[in-house]
Amino acid sequence: MSRPGEARSLRDLVTSARFKPTLILLWAPLVLTTWRYYGTKAFYLANLSASFVYCGDIGLTAELYAFTSSFFLLGLVSLLLIRVVLGESLIAYGLAPGDWRFGIKALAILAPVMVLLAYPSARQAPFLAEYPLNPGACASAAAFTAHAAGYLVYYIGFEIFFRGLVQNGLRDSLGDWAAILVQTGLSTLVHIGKPAGEIYGAILGGVVFGVVALRSRSLLYVILIHWVLGVALDLLICLA
Questions:
Q1: 137: which DSSP letter?
Q2: Which of 13, 35, 122, 194 is the most buried (most CB within 10 A)?
Q3: Could you report the per-residue pLDDT of 66-75, keeping only the tens digit for each?
């Protein structure tokens, strides 16, 4: 039995049994802080818009900046951490079809629910002030289609980080439910600054998405469900 002093030592934290959860629990706040400060639409508008504008459209460029920063910083960096640092298979982190029968059922049930949940939000002032991230997405069908495609890129990075790296990476050390709750707490906190209804919804969404990802053994279905929610909200706002 280890002594209390040994359990709190730095050496103990980086032993083979504790290295992965220690790394993930330190890495997550570091990456999320970096993303929130430097990977958002607000950062682009405040610091980069004077230097770079794609196609002369600041709103579009700000949106693309936010979407791609999620994909690269939350998504690709997480995949590199899993493969290069942890040396583990991406399949174990949800990069596989998994139980596709369950996944399709979950998608068929939850996608319409997401649309129903988006409907009242699309008529509330806080959501109208916040979305779409690029107001120009409402200008035409082509503009909205491009906007929706960009949103998919955003959610891929988001789900790889929260339901992939954090949740699946902590399951062995914390257990399934604790891992779901940890990623739910983190994913809820990054919504601070958004409309209050969205923050409270993120708590329930974190649990539901976590359960679907766990049960299906795949991120594919939660990516699509989350994407339907985001796109439905913006489409309903544009059509209002």
A1: G
A2: 35
A3: 999 999 999 9
Q: Which residues of 154-181 are buried (b: 16+ CB within 10 A; e: fewer)?
A: bbbbbbbbbbbbbbbbbbeebebeebbb
- Determine what percent of the chain is predicted with pLDDT higher than 70: 93
Strand partners, 192: 194
Whether the Cβ atoms of residue 137 and residue 238 lie closer than 8 Å to each other: yes
Residue 83 and residue 90 in contact, taking contact as beta carbons nearer than 8 Å: yes
Closest CA to 160 of 225, 95, 86, 224: 95
Q: Note whether 219 and 95 are within 8 A (CB).
A: yes
Give me the chain's average pLDDT, please.
93
- What number of other Cβ atoms are within 10 A of residue 221's Cβ? 28
Tokens of 22: 């220690």
pLDDT in tens, 187-217: 999 999 999 999 999 999 999 999 999 999 9
Residues 6+ apart with CB under 8 A from 206: 162, 180, 183, 184, 185, 187, 188
Q: How far apart are CA 60 and CA 237, in angstroms?
A: 17
pLDDT at 42 over 90: yes
Residue 40 gets which letter from DSSP?
A: S
- Residue ranges per domain, the chain? 18-239
pTM for the predicted model, two decimal places: 0.92
Q: What amino acid is encoded at 50 in this protein? A: A
Residue 31 vs residues 35, 127, 129, 193, 209: alpha-carbon distances, Å: 6, 26, 27, 18, 21
Which amino acid, residue 101? R
* Exposed / middle / buried, residue 218 (Cβ in 10 Å: 0-12, 13-18, 19+): buried
